[in-house]
Amino acid sequence: MAKQLLGKEVNAQLNEQIKAETAALRERGITPTLGIVRVGEREDDLSYERGAVKRCETLGIAYKKYVLPADAAQEDVLAVIGEVNTDAQVHGVLLFRPLPKHLDEEEIIHALSPQKDVDGITDGSLAGVFAGKALGYAPCTPSACMEILKHYGIDPAGKKCVVVGRSLVVGKPAAMMLLQKNGTVTICHTGTKDMPSVVREADIVIVAAGRAGVVDGSFLRAGQVVIDVGINVGADGKLCGDVKYDEAEPLVEAITPVPGGVGSVTTSVLLSHVVQAAKAQNAEMLDTFMAK
Fold first, then answer.
1. Three-class SS of residue 279?
2. Which of 226, 231, 74 is nearest to 141 (CA)?
3. Is the pLDDT of residue 292 over 60?
4. 202-213 exposure pattern, b = at least 16 Cβ within 10 A, e = fewer
5. For residue 215, what is the DSSP state?
6. C-alpha closest to that of 144 among 101, 94, 208, 89
7. Residue 283, burial from CB neighbour count under 10 angstroms (0-12, 13-18, 19+)
8. Rounded distance, CA 218 to CA 223, Å?
9. Which of helix, strand or coil describes residue 263?
10. Which of 10, 138, 159, 204 could form a disulfide with 151 if both were Cys (CB 3.0 to 4.6 A apart)?
11. CATH of the structural domain 140-263, one choice from 3.10.350.10, 3.40.50.2030, 3.40.50.720, 3.40.50.150
12. What pTM was computed for the model?
């Protein structure tokens, strides 16, 4: 029976740290604030927004909502991005994607200030991940994967690591983060030949393929750690991951459940980035305060 890598345990530790840092900032007159930019009323966006708002309220982080109709014009969305960029009271921005198809999503993302891009979607943030430099903020989902590994004492150094999926949202940045921790990394994708044999060689597997049950028991072996990023709706109407949990759990050493794994940590990572952004944007004032 595999050890469950539960998100709630990671969240508990992260949230205590966020609370303490937020309280310290508030004592200095700084309230970390998240700007939530949403176009339309997609149910998955609304669900994530509710969770983020609830977590903000729990941790003492403020938020501002910028909601536009689904048929909003490009210039209207860009105007909102310009507003949050220049608002000194908004430290981080969550822009829900995908945007409606009539909008130029790339132009809108490029308009967002990397200093406020706490979800790691701008070129500046991604450049920081790939260059190993502190530029912007890393994407929240692969960061959540790394937080889970860190919390449970799973060190990628010297281990064979396989990432299934090559998106800029999860796969590629996750590979870079593992590489920065001295893991030996392979990325699998739709062009990979004999993918099961490649995945079986890994000590750590991060699966972010975006397809329910794409990794089954034939991909896995004893001793592996499996991080399942996928969130899908199965044929039975229940949430499931990209890994067939019932086949994986008896085989591997440790695995994240879906739900209750990576997804639950992602929001905490987002809000920790908001706190970091509030510190960075008020560094001069904080330095002056500390010098007194």
1. helix
2. 231
3. no
4. bbbbbbbbbebb
5. B
6. 208
7. exposed
8. 14
9. helix
10. 10
11. 3.40.50.720
12. 0.92
pLDDT at residue 54 in the model? 95
140-263 shares the fold of 29-113: yes
Where would I find the H helices in 89-163? 105-111, 123-131, 140-151
Residue-wise over 240-260: b if at least 16 C-beta within 10 A, else e? bbbbbbebbbebbebbbbbee
Chain segment 91-103, per-residue pLDDT in tens: 999 999 999 999 9
Strand partners, 59: none
Q: Tokens 């920065």 appear where?
A: 180
Nearest to 147 by CA among 15, 31, 35: 15
Q: State mean pLDDT over 68-83.
A: 98
Angle 167-173-178 from CA coordinates, rounded to 5°:
130
**In the chain, what is the straight-line distance between the N-terminal and C-terminal CA atoms, in Å?**
56
Q: Is 53 helix (H, G, I), strand (E, B) or coil?
A: helix
CA–CA distance from 146 to each of 1, 35, 101, 209 (Å)? 23, 25, 32, 17
Q: Which CATH superfamily is domain 29-113 in?
A: Leucine Dehydrogenase, chain A, domain 1 (3.40.50.10860)
